[in-house]
Design brief:
Number of domains: 2
Radius of gyration: 21 Å
CATH topology of the largest domain: Aminopeptidase
Oligomer: single chain
Helix content: 25-40%
CATH architecture of the largest domain: 3-Layer(aba) Sandwich
Shape: globular
Structural class: alpha+beta
Number of strands: 15
């Protein structure tokens, strides 16, 4: 029968789309299964606010009648308006190790985007740089941290043989307790002497007000970054509600000068340690596993940091790192990943390397000319 590409138009097809990764990975692979319920919500136009400014088409590849791959073609109107370009995206890409399966999926996504006037197909992004993005190209031996992707090594060859080429690499750094004790501690004391900044944790009792503060800094601080798209109020609220379930308020730091919020750092416990054990299902018994394995989380991921323009390059980032890491061992956290950072963000990369962080994973975003 060969390879057949099908549009996902029924509930049954959507279930196949969501379950497809379980055909690619084995229990011994570093891949971490997402919660099936979360994937269904993300791919439901009536639930996720992304669809209010975007168009998404899902495809399944059938090989001899069996699901063998998947892809999403994505038009993000907010991205194209913000950047004044015509870039479409592909995401949620998975495929068995057969080049024809991957090429047929990529071709289906490319045709969908081309027919709607797009000039470039970029990805993988699921759905944008505000969510999971990038193809892992270095660092396959270790499992991903929370909200970071994983894929087999052969994916890069399949994309490149189709004609995709590098657009940008993203870096992930690994740090240990020594990172704090040997470098950050000393530098933070110096910066604190000359900056009258107040650092405080997230206040969950005023959660919505805190979300508004962080959103304002985030959209301001990141607006000139490559690939950045401002999140709508609805998208930010949607993500905040999800993160509230797992956030440790002591790992979210807001910086204030004379009572004015000027920056923040967001880190999360690495819940992938728990998700690996749940195998996609929280119920009926996954909740008990989650409660048990939650105690074994000894890692955090520093997801994002933002400082408004007039306070940058003053060492405030060092103070944020110090605040997060100084109490880590007391809460059982001994390791961290700082991700992701653009390859050409020289200031951030140089600072982390000088502080002793180790570049240990690399992700790639590809472009394909339409």
């Amino acid at each position: 029968m060969g390879v057949e590409i099908q549009e996902v138009e029924t509930g049954r097809a959507l279930r196949c789309f969501i379950r497809l990764p379980w055909k690619i990975y084995t229990p011994t692979d570093p891949w971490v299964p997402p919660l099936l319920s979360d994937q269904k919500k993300q791919l439901s136009p009536g639930h996720h606010p992304f669809y209010r400014h975007a168009e998404v088409k899902l495809y399944l590849a059938m090989l001899n009648g069996e699901p063998a791959g998947r892809i999403a073609a994505i038009i993000n109107r907010n991205h194209n308006e913000f950047h004044q370009d015509r870039v479409g995206f592909f995401g949620f890409f998975e495929a068995v190790q057969q080049r024809e399966v991957a090429h047929r999926l990529l071709d289906a996504a490319a045709r969908f985007l081309r027919d709607r006037g797009m000039e470039v197909m970029r990805g993988p992004m699921s759905f944008s740089t505000n969510e999971q993005c990038g193809l892992l190209i270095e660092g396959f031996e270790l499992p991903p941290y929370i909200m970071m992707p994983y894929n087999p090594p052969y994916y890069a060859e399949m994309l490149e043989s189709f004609g995709c080429h590098k657009a940008k690499d993203l870096y992930a750094y690994y740090v240990t307790r020594e990172f704090y004790e040997q470098r950050v501690n000393v530098l933070a004391r110096r910066v604190a002497k000359r900056l009258p900044i107040v650092l405080r944790p997230l206040n969950l009792r005023h959660f919505q007000e805190e979300v508004n503060v962080i959103r304002g800094i985030y959209n301001s601080a990141w607006e000139r970054n490559w690939g950045f798209v401002p999140m709508t109020d609805e998208e930010f609220a949607y993500m905040a509600r999800d993160l509230k379930k797992i956030v440790d308020p002591r790992l979210v730091t807001i910086g204030e000068m004379e009572g004015r919020p000027i920056g923040f750092l967001l880190a999360l416990p690495n819940w992938n340690i728990v998700l690996k054990r749940l195998n996609g299902r929280m119920f009926p018994f996954g909740i008990f596993k989650a409660l048990w394995y939650q105690r074994k989380i000894n890692q955090v991921r520093v997801i994002t940091m933002g400082v408004i323009k007039e306070y940058r390059q003053k060492g405030i980032d060092i103070l944020f790192y110090h605040k997060i890491f100084q109490g880590g061992p007391e809460r059982g956290f001994y390791e961290a990943e700082m991700s992701w950072i653009l390859e050409d963000n020289e200031m951030m990369n140089r600072a982390l390397e000088n502080l002793g962080a180790k570049l240990y994973k690399r992700y790639r975003i590809y472009d394909y000319s339409l």
